[in-house]
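Curious: why this fold?
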Amino acid sequence: MTGKARERGADGATPTRLGGRWSEATKAAFLKALSRSLNVTHAARVVGRDRSAAYHIKARDPAFARGWAEALHEAYGELEGRLLDQAINGTTRTETVRNSDGSVRLMRIVHSYPLGIAMGLLAAHRDAVIAHRAGGNGKDLDDAAIAAVKADMERVRARLRGHYSSGSEEPEAGAGTGEG
């Protein structure tokens, strides 16, 4: 700068080196878009900025950085809830088989459980479950709590093995992974 004070826009925002002015309203709109999409590039586009500008602001504005972390935490919590619902309740889709002339030969409703998602969620929360069952903060895990979680995971693995050995569809990506 040439010694002049930075000019402020009509909205009171100060310019940044990257991406123009970021008013509080712009920051709030960015964080809202981030919490809905989990995608920095998309959120930056929503507010008409470049993603590098968002990272620039994040590095220099602790309140914005906290809002960013909260937005991601909220979005991942929502995503996890939806995935958990699918793992517990399954998904339903309609399959249609057509004849060569395009007429419907067979239509069936298929209900499936994305067991790969269930395994991923179990693995992600294994330590928390063990700590909860141990009745403490996880530092004093007893053998019974560890055995209970391992037994739960083995029941899911057995369900996977039985489900796919009975001629059902191939597992979705990630299904059946984990400790073996």
